[in-house]
Amino acid sequence: MLIQAVIFDLDGTLLDTIGDIQASLNHALLKAGLAPVSTEECRRRTGWGLAKLVSASVPEPVATPELTDGITRDFLAFYRENPAIHTVPYPGIETLLGLLRNATIKMAVLSNKPDALTRVVVEEVLRDHRFERVLGGRADLPHKPDPSSTWSILRDLGVEPEKTMFIGDSEVDMETARNAGCIPVGVSWGFREVNLLREAGAEHICYSADEIRRLLGLEAGAVVGKEKEQ
C-alpha cells in the first residue's frame, strides 16, 4: 500500500488518555455539586469534543449555560495542570511512530480535544516523536467529522487524501476519513466497539500497532526513540 502520510486521532488511538479525561471531568462535576461519571460513561462520551462531553455529563434538569460553562472552565484548568498523570501510549505505538519516521511517511495528529491541550499532551507523552502537524479543536475550524481540519493538514503536508491513511478508534474518525477522502482505518483498543467502526466505514480494523505496520508494508527493525514501559 503506497501511503505518503498518516493522520492519527489522539485519545484512544495513540494514547490511553481516559484516566486523565475522567479525573478532570469528575473534578469539575464534583466542584459543581454534581455526581461523577464512571470510566465507561466517560469513554462513551469522549470523541465529539469537550462541549459535548460536558453537556452529556450534566443532568438535563439542572443544565444551564452558566453551569456548563463553569464546568468547562474547571475541566480545562484541572487538565492543564494535570495533562498526563495517567496517560500512556498504547503498546507498540512508539515503535510504530519510529518506523514511520524512518520510512519518511509524514505524520500528523488530529483531535477534537481543545487545541492547546492536544499540543500539551502530545509534547508531554510523545516528545521523542516529531509530527508535521498537531491540531486540536479550534474555534476557526469545525470539529471532526467535518473534513475541514483534515484538508488543512493535507495542504500543509502536501499530500493527496487518497494516499493518506486516517487512523482512529471511533465512528467520528471513520466518518472524518470518509468525508475527507482518506483511507479509514480503525483500531480495536480504543474507546469504541469494533462493530461501530465497521458500520462507520472502516476499510481496515487493526488489533495491534504491529498490524498497522504490516498494513503499511513497513519492515520491522531499528527505530528512532524507544518504547516506554506500559
Key structural traits:
single chain; 230 residues; alpha/beta; Rossmann fold; DNA polymerase, domain 1; 2 domains; 6-stranded parallel beta sheet; two-stranded antiparallel ribbon; 10 helices; globular; disordered C terminus
Report the oligomer: single chain
Number of helices: 10
Provide the CATH topology of the largest domain.
Rossmann fold
**Mean pLDDT over the full residue set:** 94
**Number of self-contained structural domains:** 2
Question: In CATH, what is the class of the largest domain?
Answer: Alpha Beta
Shape summary: globular
Largest sheet: 6 strands, parallel
The structure class reads: alpha/beta
The fraction of residues assigned to DSSP E strands is: 15-25%
Produce the secondary structure layout.
Elements: E1 5-8, E2 15-16, H1 18-31, H2 39-45, H3 50-57, H4 65-81, E3 88-89, H5 93-102, E4 106-114, H6 115-125, E5 133-137, H7 148-157, E6 164-168, H8 171-180, E7 183-187, H9 194-199, E8 204-206, H10 209-216
Parallel strand pairs: 1-4, 1-6, 4-5, 6-7, 7-8
Antiparallel strand pairs: 2-3
Written account of the structure:
The structure is a single chain. The protein is an alpha/beta fold and 230 residues long. It folds into two domains: 5-16 and 87-216, 3-Layer(aba) Sandwich (Rossmann fold), CATH 3.40.50; 18-81, Orthogonal Bundle (DNA polymerase, domain 1), CATH 1.10.150. The protein contains ten helices and eight strands. The protein has helices at 18-31, 39-45, 50-57, 65-81, 93-102, 115-125, 148-157, 171-180, 194-199, 209-216; strands spanning 5-8, 15-16, 88-89, 106-114, 133-137, 164-168, 183-187, 204-206. It has a six-stranded parallel beta sheet with strand order 5-4-1-6-7-8, with helices on both faces. A two-stranded antiparallel sheet has the order 2-3. Helix 1 (18-31) crosses helix 4 (65-81) and helix 5 runs parallel beside helix 10. It starts with a strand and ends in a 14-residue tail after the last helix. 41% of the residues are buried. Residues 222-230 have low confidence and may be disordered.
